[in-house]
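We treat protein structure as text, and this decision shapes the records that our systems exchange. We quote a single record here, exactly as it is kept in our systems:
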Amino acid sequence: MVILTGIITSLFIFPFNLPFTSADVNTKMVIAAVGLVLFGYDLLRNRALVISRDFLIFSIIAIMVSVWTYLVITLNDTIDDSYVQYVISAWVWMGGAYTVVWLIKAVHGEASVKLIGQYLVCVCVGQCILAYSMTLSPALKNFVDSLMGNAADFMGQAEGRIYGLGAALDPSGLRFAAVLVILAHLIHETDSATDRGLEAFYLFSFIIIGVIGNMMSRTTILGVVAALLYWTILFFTEKRERYLSGFWVTASICLLLSIGLITLLYQTNYAFRSNFRFGFEGFFSLVEKGYWETNSTNILKGMVIWPESIKTWAIGDGLFFNSQTTPDKFGQIATGFYKETDIGYLRYIFYFGTIGLLLLTGVFLMMTSTCCRMFPEARLLFLLILLVNMMGWVKVSSDIIMVFAPFFVQACIKEKEQTT
């Protein structure tokens, strides 16, 4: 049951289109449908329709995003409805999260921050190990590709980077980054004296996600930065003697073993060496050239394009993608990003203006507020996960609602139980 729950969690966090389906039906949708059934079952069992106040507020803000988007594309006379159904998308994520939380409760009797975090960690570690293993085994790669519908269109393959089962590029990088913050919290909450083995598992997991995750998406580095910030804040706000205990012994052993293995793979395995150099291109540039430089940051600099009118700043142009389709380098008709920028904040402003961006931000502020209130012991964790999301928008328009969702759903369930 633990393994099954882990698989379901992975299919939720890293969804992909199902094979042999005519429509774009992905694993998240199926799990959300199961969540709706489970929610109905729980309502019948409890014989009372009680909806969490926090979930209602969350839904109202999500509805406002959808309504505002509809108004924007109407005023701008466009047909780009990318965020018109945002509330439906948000509810689907929550439905899938309900399934995950329900299963965790069924298996463990509770769905604490620690348990939810452990499942997310195991899923991300598994994705990283799978992604690297696919570079060693073509048979495994073909098998994984066969599980994903429209595998030829899967973005991880188009970019020529390593990928997992539904995990690739910046969307996976942001999720890895959020899970690294969760790991920082789990490591801090672990007693070095009594749980040395669990602490070592967390540390090795942090290194695996930090290294292989960066090979898949350099956005993962945001999580490393946020985790270091987490430990720095606690270092100055708690008793420093705790950080001079057996933790450093375990951390030093894990780090030395990891450095040795990474060095061996770098020297003996071409696939690992090329992917490692890609993942840490900035550090190699700093050592070899004397300055920090990556191809993606150079591209990002060329995407800084500011709105030219107050109207665009306020309500946007109603376009998330270009209105005209043009042939790409392969001669296929493709729609590119509006204004040719992939920077999250700019795409949102160009699409539905600053007002829309504030409404969308409100969705994540609401989830963060609820989680901080219902799980006060993990307040810093949720604030830093929010920070990762907001930092991620500097680079891409992806978000990490799927990481927030299980915690938020459990917080809503807890709030509902307290009120009844």
Observations:
- Strands lie at 326-327, 333-334.
- The first helix runs from residue 2 to 13.
